[in-house]
């Protein structure tokens, strides 16, 4: 039986990855310090004999008593509101946390996949973004704490590969949505859906002409799984190239949810990228991967999930 460590296990992506790897017959150690995650995302796994939880901050020395075949490093705040609230922790988890996990992978002779992001392209001057593009990131801007932590993560991962011959994989994840996102984490999908469900106006930042390309969780998990199992070392974009403006997206959510609320406009946050669309040629060629779930279908599923939350959870405001 393969043994797999997943950091960030109580978060959105990490919890879905735990489900997938258990379904693939792995023994999964889920590690998390619960800073942005929630036990309830993995509550259903506590009775599973192939799962164990380790409550640990990965910026501190990481140790597992038993052998490991695979490590997936997904621990990190991921929403702009979260990483602006805990900027130092964000830098530490991308740098010190990654260093600790690479060290662990070396000790265990395990293959490691690290969760990078489309944010390494910053406010991109190349469109769509392919993996050859070096990006346009402000190191000193507010989002730099996340973007630069992830860029450092990529550098140190490649150094461990080149210098120590470690088996490494780097996924560049584009905006992904699905069940178990925190309703109030400030990301646009839960933000708009929460507003629609609470009967509030939808807040579009800027004039809404900025674009994003949204990937459904099942497609993302499939891409990550294929990349880990491949022998490809360079970064790979995993995302859905179906691009939309945020204004059109708000209109889509209004239609889907049937709310009679309207769109209101708020200032665009500093350094908010104006466009983002993955070039997935590499993922298609190397992994035979491409997204299958259309946005309308994925959004319907995630709306059902948010509708099923208690009214207490729905009203909870963090920001
Ligand atoms: P999330 O906030 O739901 O999950 C992150 C998890 O990491 C949380 O459970 C949190 O408690 C945990 N964590 C944070 N710091 C930690 C630490 N020091 N030690 C242990 N655990 C810690 O976010 P997510 O959307 O699931 O993102 C997961 C990963 O994927 C992140 O690395 C993120 O940068 C990356 N990513 C996500 C997206 C996306 O669209 N969801 C896009 C690009 C990259
Ligand atoms: N956004 C918005 N209203 C909100 C939340 C986000 O208009 O209530 C915008 C945000 O400015 C950005 C886009 O939606 O242009 C995606 O934001 P998100 O935080 O989900 O992801 P990221 O900016 O990291 O891609």
UniProtKB/TrEMBL annotation:
The pathway to which it is assigned is: Nucleotide-sugar biosynthesis; UDP-alpha-D-xylose biosynthesis; UDP-alpha-D-xylose from UDP-alpha-D-glucuronate: step 1/1
Q: What class of enzyme is it?
A: lyase
**Superkingdom as given in the UniProt entry:** Bacteria
Q: What is its EC number?
A: 4.1.1.35
Membrane topology per the entry is: Single-pass type II membrane protein
Which InterPro entries does the protein's record reference?
Answer: NAD(P)-bd_dom, NAD(P)-bd_dom_sf, UXS-like
**Classification via SUPFAM superfamilies:** NAD(P)-binding Rossmann-fold domains
Domain NAD(P)-binding per the UniProt entry, residue ranges: 5-301
Which cofactor is essential here?
Answer: NAD(+)
PANTHER family annotated for this entry? UDP-GLUCURONIC ACID DECARBOXYLASE 1, UDP-GLUCURONIC ACID DECARBOXYLASE-RELATED
Instruction: State the family named in the UniProt similarity comment for this chain.
Output: Belongs to the NAD(P)-dependent epimerase/dehydratase family. UDP-glucuronic acid decarboxylase subfamily.
What is the name of this protein? Answer: UDP-glucuronate decarboxylase
Q: Which organism is it from?
A: Croceitalea rosinachiae
